[in-house]
């Protein structure tokens, strides 16, 4: 067997930020022609390690070798010159430019480079890696998958042979994921090395050759994909045994709780973000919403909860018309509704406040006098901290200094304490580690068992299918289908996410 070539070797890498050690003596190697997955909980040190490899940070200690040669990066330009290209979860593209202009943007002499030269070089890259792009198309007209391909072409155009993909499939349909994996396999064939950062175990097991697990800033283990399994990887990530199954709680689906009829909502540009949306929700049901990012998920949540203006249609809650009612008016009608927004520290909580103060934001409505009694809120904060295992030095500690998972638990604890009839959750596990994700799935099941209706917007189709009683699929502000996850496949849902043929909408539940 021929000796394999290390494209990347990081040895004894240490990086601290003040008193916080983000990476401690990490060693990490990537071979030529392999997909190497990097796994770890939030705060495990993945991003810091990759930011050193891409020239954003400089290690305090340790060495980086590229193609066997020791390198020192003082900026991302140095990393790009060494043939390393990083593709971030949030694309670094200029929306108002064409694909061609984005490819050459920022390069030397790009202003004087002829269209013919750019097109010829791009065509050679596309032929080599079996890529397809319309260079004249404006980025704002491109789909998420097209933008991903453009980002890949952009770094290949600059000579990258080592690619870092940071959570690349977050908002992809299953069909888009398969296209990306096909591209990655072709890049492997052409001798590229790919570092793949993801939380999705099924993707790791499908595409990775080797997997390195980080925990608390240290390298735990590097394994061959064929000699491990998702359970072992999860245990290595969290340091203990973990159950990866989502146990859907049993319970009877009750009466209709919410009816949304012919709902229309316009965005800031005056276009319909929602166009004739109609669906029902039932007591004790978890209704999932699947869709490519920006398909109208945000507007559905905000219209029901009274945050945004409804242009047409009706929202009926337990027979009461709450269309055009603001949150305060909805509360005054005795309707208990909780909303976990996508923006935790913008719409959900106040970052500079502590737990007690953030709980008071919800509790002050019930206060009888002009002075707020803090004592019951302090007791409630301690109860929530204990029940949800929130890691904070104190209930008086500013929440902006906590991890994303702990911030989400505080928001969930506050909203669930209201004993809602309807719980609306927009991407409640986005960016959270595997341990916190499953804790939140358990909380959702607890609410279902109590007869609470849960509207769950998620990105992971596997989770939607395991957790939800029905999955409503939307595309460009319209419902393309409401399906039973027990009789549908990921591919069915993916087709509907892309605007495929409508399935028969089933409003009732058998």
From TrEMBL:
- What keywords were assigned to this record? ATP-binding, Nucleotide-binding, Repeat, Sugar transport, Transport
- PROSITE patterns the record matches: ABC_TRANSPORTER_1, ABC_TRANSPORTER_2
- Asked if the record carries the keyword ATP-binding, the reply is yes
The record, for InterPro entries, names: AAA+_ATPase, ABC_carbohydrate_import_ATPase, ABC_transporter-like_ATP-bd, ABC_transporter-like_CS, P-loop_NTPase
Which SUPFAM superfamilies does UniProt cross-reference here?
A: P-loop containing nucleoside triphosphate hydrolases (SSF52540)
> Annotated Gene Ontology MF terms?
ATP binding
What are the residue boundaries of the ABC transporter domain, all occurrences included? 8-241, 258-501
Q: This protein's superkingdom?
A: Bacteria
Pfam families per record: ABC_tran
This protein's name: Simple sugar transport system ATP-binding protein
